[in-house]
Amino acid sequence: MDQNWKVVLRTLYELDLERKYYRLRDQDIDTTHPLLERIGSLSVAEFQGAVRFLDRNGLIENSGEGVYQLTQKGFEVARDSEFREAQNDTNTRIALFTFIIAMVEIVNISTTISEAGPSSGRILGIVAIMLTLLTVASLFRPGPFQKLRI
């Protein structure tokens, strides 16, 4: 089942925002079920397993006649997941822009190096290389900066 429940929860969350609800009992689910068609990447068995997992863990509830809705807990889990995804996207964009700014600054420093003379040029060159390495490392592993509390 792995992460199938997350896919189903996210789909139910999106539909809940649209006020659309579907029957989710095992006998109501086949390859033509609207949710299964909407998701597209799960088999009937995977979908049924995910629905059972969500039900067992109190993330959805039967509101009558086999129609399931998100519980408050399910809504919060889905909303928090959506927020984390948006936060990750924002962090990735910030890292990319930081990298671009660092590259522009390195070009600026390299221009200064050629004007500063040989001994100053070496020091500025080393600083430029270190800044580049730190910036690239932050794109792939933000951990070092978290430890430095920058």
What features would you describe in this structure?
The protein is mainly alpha-helical. Helix content is 71%, strand content 6%. It has helices at 4-17, 34-39, 44-56, 72-116, 118-140, 143-148; strands at residues 22-23, 60-62, 67-70. A three-stranded antiparallel sheet has the order 1-3-2. Strand 2 and strand 3 form a beta hairpin. Residues 144-150 have low confidence and may be disordered.
Largest sheet, described in full?
Answer: 3 strands, antiparallel
Q: Low-confidence parts, pLDDT < 50 over ≥5 residues?
A: 144-150
Helix content: over 70%
Helices, by number, come to 6
Features:
mainly alpha, Arc Repressor Mutant, subunit A, rod-shaped
Per-chain topology:
Blueprint: H1 4-17, E1 22-23, H2 34-39, H3 44-56, E2 60-62, E3 67-70, H4 72-116, H5 118-140, H6 143-148
Helix pairs in contact: 1-3, 1-4, 4-5
Could you give a quick summary of the protein structure above?
Helices cover 71% and strands 6% of the residues. It has helices at residues 4-17, 34-39, 44-56, 72-116, 118-140, 143-148, and strands at 22-23, 60-62, 67-70.
